[in-house]
Each structure stands twice: as C-alpha cells, then as structure tokens.
Amino acid sequence: MSALTQTLHVPPKAKIRTEGLVGVVLRHAVLIALVIFCLAPIVWLLITAFKPYGELFSSPPTLFPIHPTLVNFAAGWSVGGGRGIRDSLIVATSSTVLCLILGFPAAYALARRFAAHGQLSFTILSLRMLPPIVPVIGFYLMFQKLGLYDSYIGLIIAYTFMNLPLVIWLLAEFIRQIPRSYEDAARIDGAPWFRMFCDILLPLSAPGIMTAAILSMMFAWNEFLFSLVLTGDNVITLPKALADFFLFQEPNWGQLGAIGIVAMGPLLILCYLMQRYLIRSFTAELGGR
C-alpha cells in the first residue's frame, strides 16, 4: 500500500509547475476573449463596409461579403462623411494644439507653485467633470451674441474649454516628476528661461505632452453635443454627419460602416505615431538623458 501511495504521489515541484501552467492558460484565455470582445464591433463594421446593399438584408444573412464592393466608401464620402471628417480634423486638431499651448504654462505654474495634494488641482480637474449640457447653453447664448455660432472658431473655443482642465492637470503631474535640480543647474549656468524651457522641460515632459495630445484629440474627435447645439449647416463634424445619416435619409449601414472605418484612420495613425515617440522618450530618459 505504501509503495502504491509513493507511486501516485505527485512531487511538490511538479504540482507547482502544473498549477502555473493552468494559470498561464487561464490568463491567455481571458486575454483572447477580451481581444475578441473588443475587436468584434470593428470587424463587423469592416465587413459591413464592403457589403453591397442587397447583401445587407439578404436572408439568410451572410457573414462575409460575397461580392465585395467599394461603392459604400465613395457614396458615404459624397453624402456628408467626407465633409464631416474634414471639419472634425480642423476643429479637433486646432483645439488640441490650443490646449497644449495654453495648458503647458498653466501646468508648470500649478506644478511648481502649488502642492500636488492641494485643492486647486482638484478644482481645475472638476471643470472637466461638468455635464456637457451645463456649459453648452451658456456657449450657445454667447456665441449668438458674438457671431461665433456655426463657426470653426466657436467650436474650437468650446472644445478647448472642455479639454483644457484635463490637459493642465495631466501635464502638471508629469512636470512634478521632473526634479527641480535640473532647472536650478540650468539657472546656475546662466541659461535663460526660454532655453531651459526648450532644452529641459519640453524633452522631459514629452511623454505627458503626447498623452495629453492623444486624449484631447480623441475627446474632441468624438464629441457630439457641442457640435449639435453650437453649429448649423456651415460646420458639420463627423459625429453630427453620422447622425444625419439617420435623420435625413434611410440608414445605409454599408455607408455608415465605410465612413466609420475611414473615421478611425486619423486616430489610429495618431496613436501609432505617438506610441513610437513615447517609447523613444522613455528609452532616452532611462539611458541617462
């Protein structure tokens, strides 16, 4: 009996390896399921974009297009999708640049003059927590009086107001990680503030700047309520243009899928380029830059 027990006994190390293997398999299974869950809508959108109109409502439905077509891309672009992407690029890019120009000096003052746990940081960030319906009414009344309604400048101002608090708070947290000794050494060497700003603050704050730019661009690109209330026929951003597909014509899911795929392009390119820049920045800092 003892010999049989010894034969069936599993060594502790083998048991640990087995449990570790089971854990790895479970983690990979969860990650694969999460990836499928996240990519399924995008894959469905891509398949729909290449389906002819007749296949969208065929019975039984087809998973993949039998006769792929590019008509949806041309039609969706011509009926308003192209104009929406153009206007969104103008407004989102301009507001992002303006947020960075205004936000970096404010973030530097916040990081160097006020404590991280102070109330001012929370007060600035709380402005971003306002429901959009609260400021949009005031913007509408002011823009009507100032002649900024249905204009690029008005929408850029509104988006900058929406994203600037987040940019300031985020950049301030990055600037706090930069030791003051770097700035003190530059002042001792006689470097003017602008030289210190360009040679020390900007390179070391690059990860924070890129992160703030990505978030600001994404929020401005996807914003709908401000563009719906503050614009008419002259400025039509992408979310508003996509809504027009449902309001003024019978929904064409192929065109919606095509414009949706095209609309993801600028953000994907931005994230890809910024990711590479972030990696280079972190590598340079770890290398003793």
From TrEMBL:
Domain ABC transmembrane type-1 per the UniProt entry, residue ranges: 85-274
Pfam families linked to this entry: BPD_transp_1
GO biological process, one term: transmembrane transport
Major location category of this protein: membrane
Keyword Repeat: no
PANTHER family: INNER MEMBRANE ABC TRANSPORTER PERMEASE PROTEIN YCJP, MALTOSE TRANSPORT SYSTEM PERMEASE-RELATED
Family named by the database record: Belongs to the binding-protein-dependent transport system permease family.
Name listed for the protein in its UniProt record: Carbohydrate ABC transporter permease
